[in-house]
Design goal:
Elements: H1 3-22, H2 34-66, H3 72-92, H4 112-141, H5 144-174, H6 179-189, H7 192-204, H8 211-234, H9 241-261
Helix pairs in contact: 1-4, 1-5, 1-6, 1-7, 2-3, 2-5, 2-8, 2-9, 3-8, 4-5, 4-6, 4-7, 4-8, 5-6, 5-9
Length: 262
Amino acid sequence: MNSVSWLTFGLAFPFFMTTLGAALVFFFRGTINENVQRVLLGFASGVMIAASVWSLLIPAIEQAEQQGQVGWIPAAGGFILGGLFLLALDNVLPHLHLGESQPEGVSSSWKRTTLLFLAVTLHNIPEGMAVGLSFALAMQSGEQGALSAAVVLAIGMGIQNFPEGAAISLPLRKEGLSVSKSFLGGMLSGAVEPVFAIVTILLASHVLSFMPWLLAFAAGAMLYVVVEELIPEASRGEHSNVGTLGVMGGFVLMMILDVALG
């Protein structure tokens, strides 16, 4: 497969896995068992933490040093800016987290189903940016190793998107939407990823010197989502240790994929 084919795969696979997860609404009448949901959310958290380190922060440091910069400066600066960007979105965009009764962000009259949809969509913005930047870096360097790393990141994001698709379609069904509309909502929540990936690739091609900052920015945005939303949801209630084990499992899997294949 050539680089264009791999890029197409990298853009399509995470969205496909979100769609596959959303399709669980056709097989479950209620919600997934709480312990299973904790494991899945923890697993997604672990994947994103490992991806932030091996697929984004380490390449950011290496790229900065190749440009003659002090490696930790763009890595730390971009990381902080990414977290602040998600903090701003979190405080502005109306959304409702799973298991919560009060929405966050500016007050609005939107339905609960819309607010639930926006909460998961918010997760997917930094994931799309991460995949897009990884492929932009591969196209910039022209190295096979960089392309392999981008593909591995897309696979990792796709794997953790499966529970995220279910995490929106099943609650939407519980809120009273039809099965088909719940599935559509879960599927569309993942559509933001390829969109942001493409936009990021196009922008990155014009600001190559800022690539270390952009990679670290995506890492900071993803870590914000993990610490602010995913891990608390995975640790809610009793038997939170299953969520912790899920985090460790996701981290180890993504680390192995990135080191062994990337």
